[in-house]
Amino acid sequence: MEVKRISAVDTYPLRHKMLRQGRPIETCHFKDDENEQTFHLGAFIEGKLVSVASFYYHRNENFENENQYQLRGMATLESFQRKGLSRELLKVAFPIIKQNFCDLLWCNARVGAQPFYENVGFQSLGDVYEIEDVGPHILMFKEIK
Fold first, then answer.
1. How many CA atoms lie within 13 A of 72 on its CB side?
2. What distance separates the 2 farthest-apart alpha carbons in the chain?
């Protein structure tokens, strides 16, 4: 397995298949995908992109930290799930986030993914809420040291 930086466009097929199936591919294009502070990571197995994650320099007012990154669009092909790929994407992302003078990573986590995030050191904040056309989510965060 190899983790590399990828372009936003490279994330779209996997985002679509795993997060937005049945909806137009345009729903996989996220605001600020092309922002210069945004970065995208992909995990490759035998040259095939099987897991992606995107990181955006976005401040969430629920946190006091001045500089923050948001994790969005983390997706792994079903046959490659539970093999540590998302964990590896985060391991690569944490030093990049820290290098950008940020010490907090947050995300709107799908409720079903909450145990994964807790296992990699995230904490939840607040109650479960609904994102229209997507489902129940919870705000989660991790301080980057």
1. 19
2. 42
Structure tokens at 35: 């922002």
Task: Say which CATH number the domain at 109 has.
Answer: 3.40.630.30
Structure token digits, residue 96:
């990049």
Q: Which residues contact 34 (CB under 8 A, 6 or more apart)?
A: 8
Tens digit of each residue's pLDDT (9 = 90 or more) over 68-104: 999 999 999 999 999 999 999 999 999 999 999 999 9
Number of residues in the chain: 145
Structurally, the chain folds into a number of domains equal to 1
Other beta carbons within 10 Å of 132: 5
User: By three-state DSSP, how is residue 22 classified?
Assistant: coil
Q: By percentage, how much of the chain surpasses pLDDT 70?
A: 100
> Is 0.90 topped by the overall pTM?
yes
Q: How far is CA 82 from CA 52, 66, 69, 128, in A?
A: 14, 33, 24, 24
